[in-house]
TrEMBL record:
Enzyme Commission number, as recorded: 1.1.1.399, 1.1.1.95
ACT domain boundaries: 327-399
Residue stretches in coiled coil: none
GO molecular-function terms, A-Z: phosphoglycerate dehydrogenase activity
Substrates-to-products reaction catalysed: (2R)-3-phosphoglycerate + NAD(+) = 3-phosphooxypyruvate + NADH + H(+); (R)-2-hydroxyglutarate + NAD(+) = 2-oxoglutarate + NADH + H(+)
Alphabetized Gene3D superfamilies for the sequence: 3.30.70.260, NAD(P)-binding Rossmann-like Domain
UniProt protein name: D-3-phosphoglycerate dehydrogenase
General function of this protein: Catalyzes the reversible oxidation of 3-phospho-D-glycerate to 3-phosphonooxypyruvate, the first step of the phosphorylated L-serine biosynthesis pathway. Also catalyzes the reversible oxidation of 2-hydroxyglutarate to 2-oxoglutarate.
Family: Belongs to the D-isomer specific 2-hydroxyacid dehydrogenase family.
Pathway: Amino-acid biosynthesis; L-serine biosynthesis; L-serine from 3-phospho-D-glycerate: step 1/3
EC class of the enzyme, as a word: oxidoreductase
Amino acid sequence: MSTLTLDKVKTIKTLNHIAESGLAVFKKDDYTIDNDSDHPDAIVVRSFNMHEMEIHENVKAIARAGAGVNNIPVDTCTERGIAVFNTPGANANAVKELVITSLMASSRNLFSGVEWVKTLQGEGDQVPNLVEAGKKQLVGSEIKGKKLGVIGLGAVGALVANDALDLDMDVIGFDPFISINTAWELSRNIERAMSMEEVFAEADYITVHVPLTDDTRGMFHAETFKLMKPGVHIFNFSRDGLIHEQDMAEALESERVGKYITDFPNENVLNMKNTVPIPHLGASTKESEENCAIMATRQVKEFLETGNIKNAVNFPDASIPYTGKRRVTVFHYNVPHMVGQITTAISNNNLNIADMINRSRGDYAYTMVDIENEIDEAVVSSLEEEIKRTRDIVTVRVI
Ligand SMILES: NC(=O)c1ccc[n+]([C@@H]2O[C@H](COP(=O)([O-])OP(=O)(O)OC[C@H]3O[C@@H](n4cnc5c(N)ncnc54)[C@H](O)[C@@H]3O)[C@@H](O)[C@H]2O)c1
Ligand SMILES: O=C(O)CC[C@@H](O)C(=O)O
C-alpha cells in the first residue's frame, strides 16, 4: 500500500507497555512518541481503563494491542469519529497455550500441590517422607476422555478446541455468531452445541472465550452453575465481568463448581475457595506482545497516513490504493445522499475525482475520495469546511 507524505509530525501516546518492535513502525522523521501528550493524534493501549479518561479532539485513532476493547469507550469514540482498532488473533496462541497448561495443571492439582509442598520447608530429612504421605490428598484426574466445553469459538476458543481434541479430549463448542473463517479452522470432530445449556449439561471442564459486552456480562451465575456437572472446572481467560462473582464464590464453597481458574484476580477472587488466580498472563509472551504491537501500530499508521481501515471495531473495513494527489476521508451517518453531497462539495471546489470507496457499518459509513488535482491549503480548508457543513457528517480529514 502506498503511503502519503505527512504534512506534519504526528504524535503517538501509549498508555501501557507496547513492544519496541511495534513502536518502531512509527519512523522518527514522521512520528513522535510522547506519553505525556494531552493531544496526541493516536493512542496505543493494552488493558489501561480509558473510560474515565478525557480524550482530546485531536485524537483520530485508538489501537488496542490485543483483543478485548471493553477498556475503551467505543460508543463515545464512534460518535466522535475516532476509529478504534484491535488486533484479532494476534495473541490467540499465547492464550491457548496458557489455557491448555492450566487445564492440565489444575486437573492434576499442580498449583495447590506446589503451594503445599513449600509449607514443608524446615522439615529437614522428613521432607521426602512427608511428601509421600501427603500426596494422596492431591490425586488428580487425567483430561484424556473427559469432555471440554468451549463457549465462544473465535480466535482463542477455536485453537483451544482443536488442541483439546489432539489431547484426546471430547470437545463440545457453542458460538451462535461464529465467523465463516473460524468455522473452516475447526475440526469436524468438535460437537456443535445449539445452546450453552447443552454445553453445561455435558462438560467436565468449561472454558469461556467471548468478549465482555452488555449481552455477555454475568453470563455465568447461580442458575447456570446449577445446570453444570457437579465439580466442573471453569476456566476464564476472557474477562472477570462474565462471571457473577458472589454466585461463583457460593458455587465454589458448596463444591458445585470444583475449581475456578481465572486470569482476572481481584480481592473477591483471592478470597474464593479452590480458585487459581493467574495475574492476567494470557497474552504475556514475547511473541504475542510483538504480534499485537506490530499489528496495532501498522493499522494506526495506515489510517493516519492513508485513511485506509483494517480491523476497526467501530468503522467499516475500507481500503483503496492511493491514486490521487490528495485524499478526502469522511466518517458520516449511514443515510441516503451522503456520497452525492461529498462529491458535490469536491466538484464545487473545481476538483476531479480519481477514485473512491464507500463502506457502511450499522448506523455509520465511511467514504474516501482521491482527488486528481494538486491543491493548496486554502482549497483544502474550503473543501473541509464545505463538507463539514453537510448534514450527518461526523468527521472530515483531507490527507
Ligand atoms: N487473558 C488474556 O490475556 C486475553 C487475551 C486475548 C483475549 N482475551 C479475551 O478473550 C476474548 C476472546 O478473544 P478472541 O481473540 O477469541 O476473540 P474473538 O473475537 O476472535 O472471538 C470471540 C468469539 O465469541 C463469540 N461470541 C460472542 N458472544 C457469544 C455468546 N454469547 N456465546 C457464545 N459465543 C459468543 C463470537 O462469535 C466470537 O467467535 C476477548 O474478547 C478478550 O476479552 C483475553
Ligand atoms: O495486553 C494484555 O496483556 C492482555 C490482552 C488481553 O486481555 C486481550 O484482550 O487481548
